[in-house]
Each structure stands twice: as structure tokens, then as C-alpha cells.
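Please check our next protein.
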Amino acid sequence: MSTEIAMLLDLIDEAFDRRSWHGTNLRGSVRGLSVREAVWRPRPGRHNIWEITVHAAYWKYAVHRRLTGGKRGSFPLTGSDWFERSDPTGRKRWQADLTLLAEQHRALRDAIARLTPSDLRKTIPRGSTATGMLIRGIAAHDLYHAGQIQLLKRLMGRSPR
């Protein structure tokens, strides 16, 4: 594996579930949350942690699909981008969505591992973004939402880890 690809894999892993200097990553930000905490909203009409978690899974899928040329509409859940989650008794569904997030990360990681350094400079078909930029962007997306989740935890009175 090339150094460039290995660095991108390190980048997305640090943003998702590996130790890094910046603090809590996406997976760490949702670790240990109860379903009641996951559905808490700072006010009506705002997203909760659970919705942000599924949104992150969706965008991992979307980047994977763009890298592989996969078929639109193949995400395991019906819909796109934001998915309403508000059932405070939905512990099994919350756990299933956390599993979905991890599965989408693994699929994305596998797709990136199959790339070559020259692929990173190519523009995604039917798009205007280079492959390398898209991959760096999904890592930034994970970190953005990890920070957002940490803030929501603080707002609900839970001390972020």
C-alpha cells in the first residue's frame, strides 16, 4: 500500500475510532450514551445525537458510493442525509444504528484501501471533487460532528469524555 493511501486511512480512522491528538473522535463521542441521551434535543426542531450519528453513517455510504461507482439508493435505510430518530425506548434501534455507522466506516475504509495514488488526483465521475479531497472531507465531517455531539452532551448536562 502506498504512503498516500496509508495516510488517508490513518486520517479517517483517527477521525472515527482511533486515538489522536485532537481529543474525542466520532465513535468516542457516542460511546456509552443511553438512548434517552441520544434523542435529547437542545430545542424543538434541532437535530439530536442519534440523528447526527445516522447522518454520519449516510455520508460515509455516500463517499463510498462515489468512490466505487455504486448504485444510488443502496443505503440500508430508506431516505437520505437526515433520518428522524426520537424514540426514547428504541435501545435496539439505537444499537443497530451504531452498528450501521461502524459498518459504513469499514466499507469506506475498504474502498479507500483499494485506491492507487493516481486515483487520488482524479475527479470523481459526475462530480467536480478530486478523490483525495473527498476522502479528507469525510474525515473532517466525522470530526465536525464529533465536536457537535460533545457540545450537545455538555448542553444536556453530561460531562463529555
